[in-house]
Amino acid sequence: MDIVVSGIRSTGNLHLGNYFGMIRNAVKMQSENKCFFFIADYHALTTHPNPDTLHVNIKQVLAEYLACGIDPDVSTLFIQSDVPQVSELYLLLNMNAYIGELERTASFKEKVRRHPDNVNAGLLTYPVLMAADIIIHKANKVPVGKDQEQHLEMTRKFARRFNQLYKTEYFPEPDAYNFGSDLIKIPGLDGSGKMGKSEGNGIFLIDDPSVIKKKVMSAVTDTGPTALNQEPSEPVKNLFSIMEVLSEPSTIEYFREKHAACEIRYGDMKKQLAEDIIRFTTPIRERINEILSDSLSLRKIVGEGAEKARESASRTISEVRKIIGYRPF
Ligand code: TRP
Question: CB–CB of 118/48 below 8 Å?
Answer without folding.
Answer: yes
